[in-house]
Automatic annotation (TrEMBL):
Residues 56-90 form the RecX second three-helical domain. It comes from the Bacteria. GO terms for biological process: regulation of DNA repair. Residues 106-150 form the RecX third three-helical domain. Its main location: cytoplasm. Modulates RecA activity. It is found in: Cytoplasm. It comes from Billgrantia gudaonensis. The keyword Phosphoprotein does not apply. Residues 11-47 form the RecX first three-helical domain. This is Regulatory protein RecX. One of its GO terms (cellular component) is cytoplasm. InterPro entries: RecX_HTH_1st, RecX_HTH_2nd, RecX_HTH_3rd, Regulatory_RecX, WH-like_DNA-bd_sf.
Length: 157
């Protein structure tokens, strides 16, 4: 019998989703309600999963930040994505602060590395420099990090 016709509980669907990857609570709630589960049942299910340690916004955010840092994304983009996925600002501030203190989320170093990986040099014309600036801004780096990267990305080369 196809799975669509089987009556599944919110917990069954949540476990199936969480088996693939971590989800933020808000993201998981949205997916479960989209599957037709009642809002109250979803809320109860998510509370139980959190109590059992099967769903954690902290664990999701930590995993998400690490994966985005490995992709060469900047702090602004990472913050925006986490907010969009329902991570509250206090948790977000604490999580990003911890990553910055540990040195894992150094926007200046990430911007330099992303720029050096993508471009062979700073560019000879204003148009080429603007292209590099847009590249970094699109990756989620602020103006200060962009300026720093343009000046120092190729220092070691």
């Amino acid at each position: 019998m196809p799975r669509d016709t089987v009556d599944t509980s919110p917990r069954d669907d949540a476990i199936r989703l969480l088996a693939r990857r971590e989800y933020a609570r808000a993201e998981l709630a949205s997916r479960l309600t989209a599957k037709g589960h009642a809002a109250q049942a979803v809320a109860e299910c998510l509370e139980a999963l959190a109590e059992e340690g099967l769903q954690s916004d902290d664990r999701f955010a930590e995993s998400f930040v690490r994966s985005r840092v490995l992709r060469g994304q900047g702090p602004l983009k990472i913050r925006a994505e986490l907010e969009r996925r329902g991570i509250d600002r206090e948790r977000l501030r604490a999580m990003l602060g911890a990553f910055e203190e540990s040195g894992e989320l150094d926007g200046f170093a990430l911007a330099r590395a992303a720029l050096a990986k993508r471009f062979a040099g700073p560019g000879d014309t204003p148009r080429e420099r603007a292209r590099r600036e847009r590249f970094l801004a699109g990756r989620g780096f602020d103006a200060e990090q962009v300026r720093h990267a343009l000046e120092h990305a190729w220092d070691d080369a």
